[in-house]
Amino acid sequence: MLLKISHRTEYRYDAPLLYALQRLRLVPYGGPAQTIKTWSLTIDGAREEVRFTDHFGNDTRLLSVEGDPHVISVEASGEVETHDTAGVMGAHRGFAPLWLFGSETRLTTAGDGIRALAGGVGGGSDLDRLHRLMGNIRERVAYTVGATDSGTSAEEALLQGTGVCQDHTHIFTSAARLLGFPARYVSGYLMMNDRLDQVATHAWAEAHVANLGWVAFDVANGISADARYVRVATGRDYREAMPVSGIRLGQAQEQLAVHITVEQ
């Protein structure tokens, strides 16, 4: 499947910025499930300071902003040919050792709720257990926009019983690690069947399974990733794979607008 993607992020400020630094992870990389045909990153109102590949293998750019202008825009766009691998992403690669993905972060630390969730998965093959875990999370945590924020932990979302794809992914990775599987957070794009325009990127999890490698699980939709998915960045949680992050100094008030389209 050939997917065309456009992702525009625009920041408007009511006064000049003293200083701001932004980190971008907006460039997908090739692999068993995707081939990058074309991709461009256009930046207006900011200066690229450095680009590098981080320890998770993510293309990372650092931008700085100082003084005028009052508008900063970042647009990532291109075409990606995707392949349905039934969610199997293959062997582990990158600088980060596999054991690192078995470690907790602040957003994925397991509490009593997640321990009980993992303990209730039962036996069977590795894939059976992980699919059962995905189904159990979907039953426990309803998809509700605005119910959580970027700082909500896996345990908090599970106890609350509502969340979005970020929360589903954090819960899955936390519980999968308790079950003995290295697990990671994936940020990227998903072609929706019922809409063209989107206001946020998508997130899903991958667990490392013996003899298969990394296998994708999208808890929010209850499936393994297929040809509608484009992977952009990975990490142990949202903060390590988020598309855009940064800091700013000064009293300027920020307005953020995000517009994403994913189409065949």
UniProtKB/TrEMBL annotation:
All residue ranges annotated as the Transglutaminase-like domain in the record: 157-221
Keywords: Hydrolase, Protease
Keyword set includes Protease: yes
InterPro entries listed in its UniProt record: Bac_transglu_N, Papain-like_cys_pep_sf, Transglutaminase-like
UniProt xrefs under SMART domains: TGc
The keyword Cell cycle appears for this protein: no
GO molecular function: peptidase activity
GO biological process: proteolysis
UniProt protein name: Transglutaminase-like enzyme, putative cysteine protease
